[in-house]
Structure formats: structure tokens, C-alpha cells
Amino acid sequence: MASATVADSRVADGKWIARGAERTSLPRFLLWLSPWAVVLAAGVYAAGLCLYYGLNQTNMDNRFAFGLWIFLDLGMIALGAGAFFTGFLVYILKRAELRPILNTAVVVGFICYSGAVAILMIDVGQPLRAWFTFWHPNTHSMLTEVTFCISCYLLVLCLEYIPLLLRNRQLRKLPSFLVFEHQLHKLVPVLAGVGALLSFFHQGSLGGLYGVLRGRPFAFRQGIFIWPSTFFLFILSAIASGPSFLMLVTAAVEKLTGKRLVPVELFRRLGFISGVLLGIYVAAKSIDTLIWINFTSPAVGFAPWQYYMYKPFGTPILFAEIVLFGLLPAFLLTFRPTAERRGWLLSAAALACGGVLLNRFILTVQTLALPTLSFDEFLQYTPSWQEVASFTGVIAYGVIIYSLSYRYLPMFAPAKGEITDVSRH
Amino acid sequence: MSARYGMVIDVDRCTGCGACMVACSAENNVPALPQATARTGLTPLLVRTVANRAQGAARREAFIPIMCMHCEHETPCVSVCPQQAVEVDKATGIVMQMPQRCLGCRYCMTACPYHARYFNWWDPAWPAGMEKSLNPGVAVRMRGVVEKCNLCHARLHSAKEKAAAAGKREIDPADYIPACVEACPTAAIRFGNLSDRNDPVSQEANSPEAFRLLARLGTEPKVYYKSKEAWVRALAQSSSGRSSEPGSESQPAEVQHG
């Protein structure tokens, strides 16, 4: 992944790289992967400890029953929303100009969702009982909806990833793979539609996870029918930040490879979509916050100011969430003079992604830290090294999968399979 | 006839001796784990110490036993469990936990406003020889599942078996008394059927001195507390009380000890 690239004939694994594509030498590529592999190995070891010895390896406890991992799950799934949303825009709304980013969206989505599912499997006390949720489902539980939709959507992402995988130069030589890929590719628009439906629901249900908690007035929200307002806010914030995250990932790859991989106009288009949706989200979030402060929370005996009397969760964090990481990037992404400058555009995209992560952090961590009983104390929690290592291991896993996909698959090629990425130099 | 089992805990009578906690642990085979901390231990019944904010002679302390409140309206832990491991028994009103089905996701613990649910962070273990003292009527819970107070459900089973053996359909109330109620030396914890207007516990629950913790959440807990002290009754309020003037008699509480 270094900037120096050579033609495929001079690369040891050149026959696996798409014809005409320029990739760095194999030793340099392995050098790039090696630190990530070490981080991933540490993560696997930490996860193994948690599975073998149990969750006593973490610093979670009876009151801080959720911790770093739930934040990671919610954050990754929000950022991975670019996958389903781009598919929705391209195949359902026929926005063909977004097609060059589609493969990246699928790979990023696959990484985010598979990483989140892996962490979820460590995060439960009895992972071997995961199938119980399908066998004895409680249809009233938001977690049931999340489990069903995420499992199904991960399957959809696998089915979307396989055609890309089968477009590898060597795998294409196998006739059965070629036929399979061709048939599967015809299904992709259907998969995109199914994926969009599943994703709208599970993004919402993840918001509903906390929004339905009547016993946690900081998180509890009124809503429409069975869905609390956080259901809709999570969908909005996910589809607002997903395109921004895709933009950031693509920009990072462009920087590392020294290539222009997608048209400049595509970034502006993604930024505009992200900015408009973020603006709608900020407006909805502001109205929701006002309703919560004035009606929902006081109705159950909690004065809203008391949520913000504990450091570091003061009112500045609310301001940061809505204005600094919401309104500001929405403006920067849609205001033409800033949207046309790459630096401003990417900075705004980073703020938008930071905003959705901050929102997930507040909802998961601040909710648990705050007292409910009058004689409760504000709690603090510091993740154990096993939790942190598992967390970073998933990030390393993502980098490795993306790196391998970029090297060996036609990530930024049109559907025909010919690489179009060219060196800027 | 269905019952609504509940409790009234007289805070003014509670001396904080902890006999209820010990009885609960012994009855329900709760392991004593040396590696557990105040935040990771298993305490289905936990006596917490609270004090008013006054100093010197005006300072007052009280003990508040906390266990599952067996909420009966929109029971927070029941609706969230993804695999129906928690349910409200319609015949008794007891909120039941099925460890055999529990995934250990801990969503119910997050949902409980009373922090009355506990996770088995470790494998259950007892000092050598102590396993002979285990209650054969209660299954030991494995690592990785959630547990909580079930109002000594094994005792209810025994009472039902006794009634059935005698050819009766209803149990004798004297045969079903949770271990904490039985162990309390000052009779601060009382247990009964809240649906029965003639039951003394039902009458106490409706007395002016009775209150419930976080009642405004609307979950209708079936564990009541009572006290003549205004500052203790103010414990029912949310944590908004902590911002008031120090020493205010009407406001609770500053600290808890395990």
C-alpha cells in the first residue's frame, strides 16, 4: 500500500492482481500488513481469553453491564451504513454516478458488520446460545430485531462481496466461478433492496435499544407506535455519516496509493448527500432533545439538568454533539465554497463521522454512568486491556481485509472487471 | 386465584445486620467468590446504607435493602430480553429469570433502574466441603448468565407440593415465606399477597408512610418501603434530590456501602 507501485509483471503475486493495475511490491505490501497482523493477533488472543475465562477478563460490572464493545458495535454499524445506503441510491434510486464507490461500500460494510458480529459474540456470556434468539425470539425486544436483521444483512453483504471476490483475475479463470459470479451479479439489485430494508430496520432498532429503556430516563424517549424517537434518529444519523465515512476511507486509500481512484465530483456528491441528511438529522435531534428536556424526562421525575452535572458529561457535550459535530459539518458539506475544497470537505466528513460516534458513545456510556436511584453514584469505567485489544483487533482486521481487497480485487473498476485506476504520477 | 406477591420493608426497623443477605445467599446457592468486588459480586439482595446530608447530631443513617422490585407494569427487563428468558408469572406476579435460556447479553441489567440484576462473571465455586451445604432445591447458575431475586421460588414450589399432597388447590401462606423475610431479626421485611385486601402487607403498602423507589417511572414495583422519616421517604424520588442544600431533612442521601 505504499506510494511506489510497479506493473503486475514485476510483482511476485502479479498473476493474482487485475490486468493493467499497478500495485506495490509484495514485500512492501507484507510490510504494510505486518503491524496490523500483530494488532489483530493481540486482539484474537484477548478475545480468546474472554471466551475461555469469561467476561471477568473485562472491566465491565453489574452496573456498567455494557462497555467499550457496545460502543464499538453501534459505531461500526453506523459507519457501515454507507454500504446499504449507497446500494439503495444506486439500485433503487438509480443514482448511477455513485457506482464507482459501490465496491468500496460493500467491502467497508462487510468489514463493519462482520467485525461488529464478531465482537458481539465475545460480548455475550453464553455465545453458544446465540441461536436461542432465533428459536425463542421475544418479538417485543429491540435486540431480537437487531439480531435478526444484522444476521440477515451480514448474509446479504457476503452475497454482495462474493461477486467482487470472484472477479479476481485467477478465480475468473474457473468457468463455474465465472458463471456463479455472473448469476450472483444479476441478483445484486435485489440484494441491495433487501439489504436496504433490513438495514433501515436494524439501524433503527439499535437506536430503539436504548430509547425503550423506561428505567433509564436519560435514554428513554417517546415515539411513534412501538418505536421511540431514537429509532428514527439512528437511521438518519447512520445514512448521514455512512457516505462521509466512505469518502474518508477512499481518500485515505488515495493518499496511501498516490492514485486518484474516483472522480472528484463523486466526493462532492457524497458530501452533499451526507450534508443534507445531516442537516435533517440535526433538526430532528434538536426537536427530540427539546421534547425530552421539557416533557419526557420531567414526566418520570428526572430533571434534565441533573444528567449534565457530572464531568466530563456536562452541557458542552450536548453542544458538541448537535452543533460542532452536527450543524457545522452539515453546513461545510453543503456550502459550495467549502464543499469544493477537498480539505474542507474531508474535514467536514470527519466531523460528521465523529458526531455519529459521539452520539453512540453518549447513548451507551453516559446512560450507564448516570445514577437512577437517589442514592446511586455516578460511575466510572475503564476498559481492560482485553477489551481494548479486541477493539483494536477489529480495526486491524478491517484494514487487512480492505488492503487485501484493494490489492487483489477490482475495487474501483466498472462492472466489466477492468481496472481503471491510474497513477497520478 | 392469582396472587400478587410483594413486600413491605420497614426502613425504620432495619438495623443493617445483613442477615437477609446471608439467608438469601444460603437459600439460593449464591457462591462466595473471593475475587468478586462490590461491583461484580452476586447480591440478589443488597442492603445499602444511605444518610441525609446533615452533619453532627443531625446526621441520620438508614439501611435500604434492594432486590428485584418485581415490576408489574411494562416490566423493563421482560420486554428487552431477546430470547424470553425473563417473564412475569401471571399466577404470582413474580418476575422470573430462566438462567438456562439466558444468553448473557446483559440487556436486562441495563434496563433495570434498580440495578437489581447480577451477572455471573465467574464459574460458581465453593470452598472444599461447603458444597455439601448447598440447597438441593435450587439449581446453581453457570458462568455467563444473569440472575436476580425470584422471591425464593423454590419455596413456592415446596409449598405447592405440600398443598397438592394434602389435596388442596391453594397453598397455605405460612408455607411460602422468602428466606430474607424469615431471617430478618426485627421483622423489617414483610411478605404477602398485595391482591388480598385482608393481608397485613397489602394494608401496609397502602399506608401513608409507604413509598416505592422511582415510582414515577410507572413500572409499578411490588416492593414497598415505609418510614416515618421524611428524608427517607424522599428516597423515592429520582437523583435530582442530590443538588439540594446540605442538611435538608427532606432530601436524601449521599452514599451507599455494599
Short description:
Chain A is mostly helical and 425 residues long. Chain A has 13 helices and 6 strands.
Low-confidence stretches of chain B: 240-258
**Biggest interface: chains and residue counts?**
A-B, 51 and 65 residues
CATH level-1 class of chain A: Mainly Alpha
- Beta strands of chain A, count: 6
* Count of distinct strands of chain B: 10
Task: Write the element-wise H/E pattern of chain B from the N-terminal end onward.
Answer: EHEEHEEHEEHHEHEEH
Strand order of the largest sheet of chain B: 8-1-10-9
Reading off the top of the CATH hierarchy, the class of chain B is best stated as Alpha Beta
Poorly predicted ranges of chain A: 415-425
Our estimate of the beta-strand percent of chain B is 15-25%
Give the tally of structural domains of chain B. Answer: 1
CA-based gyration radius of chain A: 22 Å
**CATH topology descriptor of chain A:** Formate dehydrogenase/DMSO reductase fold
Tell me what portion of residues of chain A adopts beta-strand conformation. under 5%
Report what the structure shows.
The complex is a heterodimer of chains A (425) and B (258). Chain A has 425 residues and is mainly alpha-helical. In chain A, 66% of the residues lie in helices and 3% in strands. In chain A, helix 3 runs antiparallel to helix 4 (102-123) and helix 3 crosses helix 7. Chain A is globular. The two termini of chain A are 16 Å apart. The model of chain A is unreliable at 415-425 (pLDDT under 50). Chain B has 258 residues and is an alpha+beta fold. Chain B has one domain: Alpha-Beta Plaits (2-Layer Sandwich). In chain B, 18% of the residues lie in helices and 15% in strands. Chain B contains 7 helices and 10 strands. Chain B has helices spanning 19-27, 76-80, 107-111, 153-165, 179-183, 200-205, 230-233, and strands at 5-10, 46-51, 61-66, 86-88, 95-97, 118-119, 146-147, 189-193, 210-211, 223-226. In chain B, strands 8-1-10-9 form a 4-stranded mixed beta sheet. Chain B starts with a strand and ends in a 25-residue tail after the last helix. The interface between A and B is large, with 51 and 65 residues.
